[in-house]
């Protein structure tokens, strides 16, 4: 069975994902993490899904606040992806010195991201070591009309 697990793991590495900064605000604090598991779920109403590891600091903040924003990154935003993906918000203010604004939910929206979606959680579902949050998109915008989304490549992203 070990061979099957290894093969499954290798095969899953070929699934393509964008790179996103998922942000939230809860009890006067803001935080964000870098994530790759984001998908559209419905046109009407406009719904998207995010999958967040249960051990992540932002996970509990999203559970508590019921809100999040998806900041879509482009190739020129890779440093933002690293900034929000390499340290925990439990021990550091990831937004120190970062220019951001807010919209409907109060979740941080990066001023330099490619595009963004501001969401209210409508349901959540346990999925192994992650929780899948389904969010209704309340607001959104595009900052770079001709931009291209950053695609996650685990072999080069953190190098």
What is the CATH class? Mainly Beta
Q: CATH topology, what is it called?
A: Pnp Oxidase, Chain A
* Main sheet characteristics: 7 strands, antiparallel
Amount of helix:
10-25%
**What is the number of independent domains?**
1
Read across the widest sheet, the strand sequence of neighbours is: 2-1-5-8-9-4-3
**CATH-level-4 superfamily name:** Electron Transport, Fmn-binding Protein, Chain A
Q: Using only CA atoms, what is the Rg?
A: 15 Å
| Portion in beta strands | 35-45%
> If classified by CATH, what would the architecture be?
Roll
Shape: globular
Report the total helices: 3
| Tally of strands | 9
Decide which structural class fits the backbone: alpha+beta
Distance between the termini: 32 Å
Low-confidence stretches: none
Order of helices and strands: HEEEEHEHEEEE
Average pLDDT figure: 93
In short:
The chain is α+β, with helices and mostly antiparallel strands and 159 residues long. The protein has helices at 2-12, 57-65, 78-85; strands at residues 20-26, 29-35, 38-42, 47-53, 67-72, 100-101, 109-110, 115-127, 130-142.
Question: Which terms summarize this structure?
Answer:
about 160 residues; alpha+beta; Pnp Oxidase, Chain A; two-stranded antiparallel sheet; globular
Description:
The chain is an alpha+beta fold. It has one domain: Roll (Pnp Oxidase, Chain A). The protein contains three helices and nine strands; from the N terminus they run αββββαβαββββ. Strands 2-1-5-8-9-4-3 form a seven-stranded antiparallel β-sheet. The radius of gyration is 15 Å and the shape is globular. The termini are far apart. The mean pLDDT is 93.
